[in-house]
């Protein structure tokens, strides 16, 4: 039986010879990471113009949040376990190592009003899927090409096809686009999500084209990223929920200590009331409320119908790291 859950609602170039961002405290050793799946998006100037013209204010406001199939009942034992390897971290762009991150004060889904970098790096994602428009959330992260957005797998591909007309709007605020609208040139996801929509690997990335000669991170900055970290840590989650009681107009956040899903997935869980449209929004470790900077370690993925106050997000293991590494080595132009 296929259980339906609301999905609150990274890439495929081989690493090649391009340099990766250095790992913070990474240990030596070889880790096998499966090659991500990928799809070219608006990879020419003419295609990008068409996509940017397509997304009018009216279309964005009318784009509903995306729902998708979640875990299958009784299938947990058959699911693949996210591979865990050497802990790896890249700090936020422009972060000061001398600042200590604040502990997460509990929030189950309130507007973020403290400003900081997170209001620029987090944004709404808009796309067309199976002939209809839809919305998710995403986050700009530090990367070698300064052009990577992390989001959920179902926010780039679902039902056997990659989405089209894919754009990222950082800092979206009640219809305003203070930092512009950015088109994706390439979409990437884990092979497990690509092949069978395995909820444990609901992870994706988009490579974002420069806008007016500047890269995304040059304009809005980038959050840090971390993989293969310990579970059950203090986390902050952000997103743009668009299903009632929210309307997608404001950045919402949840915070508290993560727990392990003991039902149908191997995800992190967090007490959080965010709804559809927040899919793909970042979960961050070591988040500093004063600076708005943290280290992304998951994304909003799905909620169970029987537990609407809990949000779940995938573990960022080797597969997620492979998506990120491929994305940051892609040519964004």
UniProtKB/TrEMBL annotation:
Q: Source species, please?
A: Nonomuraea longispora
Name the record gives this protein: Peptidase
Q: What InterPro entries is this protein classified in?
A: Glutamyl_endopeptidase, Peptidase_S1_PA, Peptidase_S1_PA_chymotrypsin, TRYPSIN_HIS
Please list every transmembrane segment annotated in the UniProt record, as residue ranges.
none
Q: In terms of domain of life, where is this protein from?
A: Bacteria
Q: Which UniProt keywords apply?
A: Signal
Location of the region described as Disordered in the Swiss-Prot/TrEMBL record:
61-115
- Signal sequence annotation: 1-28
User: Where is the sequence biased in composition, kind Low complexity?
Assistant: 62-83, 93-109
One Gene Ontology biological process: proteolysis
Q: Does the keyword Lipid biosynthesis apply?
A: no
What GO MF annotations does this protein's record show? serine-type endopeptidase activity
